[in-house]
């Protein structure tokens, strides 16, 4: 075997490799001998077929298999000897001229091909014991519990009919019959009877609920609205429509007493038990927010401590995934980059930076896990599948079968589990200090990022 490096630029390498025809012939001959005891040909007793005859019958196919196996073995040896960790699948270029292919398959010429690769750079891991990580912790206050219970009460409050002649106001519930038209023609799904609309709930088309303010029982109005550009029905998306709407009942929300009886309607013994359950739920939510803040801070620290060239093809792949998603969302919402106070070029630049960071962090986390033998067990993945199935009541078997038959989907479940285990490993070594914060400060960072 002769290997010549024809390109070495950063993380990209290319090699020209030549394997003598004699080596291929020897390997193909060994395969034919092995095949001798396995094939059955008319006119020959089992195991008695001459190799020369087998070569006439199976020679080309056996040589093709030999070439394929030789390329795989040669590449593996080459990459191993040079300590290469591949970022992507190698790109192999073979002879394409018919005459060359024929000579190669007949064993008359050497195998000569090129292999182009992109490698992962050597990553020098930081000393995680030097990492300083602040852990914001918020206690659940009595007012937090009271607010949570009030929200529960608001979603469970009843409604009572308003007095005759009273009009609908924001927060009221209006029962309506309606007929919708576009350009004067009715459309599928555009009619309804006995439909309850809570004004201000934003569950109907934008602008629909607001036009019900001031309507009275048995009053008919024509409501003019436009379907959102990202509406689920392509035929209706962005279309202006009119709804001839009649209110049949106007109801106002009723005050609800937050007491033991209210708690019992929720399946709890008393108000104290309801408060206890609300406190536990809030504590779990706060802990989740704390975890996200700590993890983000740790990833920022890892990013700062590991600056290296990320494999360009991986960055391109990550960027394209994000960019296609961004473009699809903007097109669906009918937005432009000017609406976001930026330009397409500036947005691409920012997303490419994000893609570079994601790829580098992914490689760093992988390196940490590999060097410290961190793995994800099948049981852990199985529990994640079960959790997903629980989120879709009645479709558990469908979810289970989907993951069982979809290796890529399983890998997507495995990835965040692996990442969290690596993060926990680093946090055990890092110097983590707790800092008491308010609920508002705990969520402030997330709110600012969402706004941005």
TrEMBL record:
<feature type="domain" description="PPIase FKBP-type">
    <location>
        <begin position="171"/>
        <end position="259"/>
    </location>
</feature>
<dbReference type="GO" id="GO:0051083">
    <property type="term" value="P:'de novo' cotranslational protein folding"/>
</dbReference>
<dbReference type="InterPro" id="IPR008880">
    <property type="entry name" value="Trigger_fac_C"/>
</dbReference>
<dbReference type="InterPro" id="IPR036611">
    <property type="entry name" value="Trigger_fac_ribosome-bd_sf"/>
</dbReference>
<keyword id="KW-0963">Cytoplasm</keyword>
<dbReference type="Pfam" id="PF05698">
    <property type="entry name" value="Trigger_C"/>
</dbReference>
<keyword id="KW-0143">Chaperone</keyword>
<comment type="function">
    <text>Involved in protein export. Acts as a chaperone by maintaining the newly synthesized protein in an open conformation. Functions as a peptidyl-prolyl cis-trans isomerase.</text>
</comment>
<protein>
    <recommendedName>
        <fullName>Trigger factor</fullName>
        <ecNumber>5.2.1.8</ecNumber>
    </recommendedName>
</protein>
<dbReference type="Pfam" id="PF00254">
    <property type="entry name" value="FKBP_C"/>
</dbReference>
<dbReference type="GO" id="GO:0005737">
    <property type="term" value="C:cytoplasm"/>
</dbReference>
<dbReference type="GO" id="GO:0044183">
    <property type="term" value="F:protein folding chaperone"/>
</dbReference>
<comment type="similarity">
    <text>Belongs to the FKBP-type PPIase family. Tig subfamily.</text>
</comment>
<keyword id="KW-0132">Cell division</keyword>
<dbReference type="GO" id="GO:0003755">
    <property type="term" value="F:peptidyl-prolyl cis-trans isomerase activity"/>
</dbReference>
<keyword id="KW-0413">Isomerase</keyword>
<keyword id="KW-0131">Cell cycle</keyword>
<dbReference type="InterPro" id="IPR005215">
    <property type="entry name" value="Trig_fac"/>
</dbReference>
<dbReference type="InterPro" id="IPR008881">
    <property type="entry name" value="Trigger_fac_ribosome-bd_bac"/>
</dbReference>
<dbReference type="GO" id="GO:0043022">
    <property type="term" value="F:ribosome binding"/>
</dbReference>
<dbReference type="InterPro" id="IPR046357">
    <property type="entry name" value="PPIase_dom_sf"/>
</dbReference>
<dbReference type="InterPro" id="IPR027304">
    <property type="entry name" value="Trigger_fact/SurA_dom_sf"/>
</dbReference>
<dbReference type="GO" id="GO:0051301">
    <property type="term" value="P:cell division"/>
</dbReference>
<keyword id="KW-0697">Rotamase</keyword>
<dbReference type="Pfam" id="PF05697">
    <property type="entry name" value="Trigger_N"/>
</dbReference>
<dbReference type="GO" id="GO:0043335">
    <property type="term" value="P:protein unfolding"/>
</dbReference>
<dbReference type="GO" id="GO:0015031">
    <property type="term" value="P:protein transport"/>
</dbReference>
<dbReference type="InterPro" id="IPR001179">
    <property type="entry name" value="PPIase_FKBP_dom"/>
</dbReference>
<dbReference type="InterPro" id="IPR037041">
    <property type="entry name" value="Trigger_fac_C_sf"/>
</dbReference>
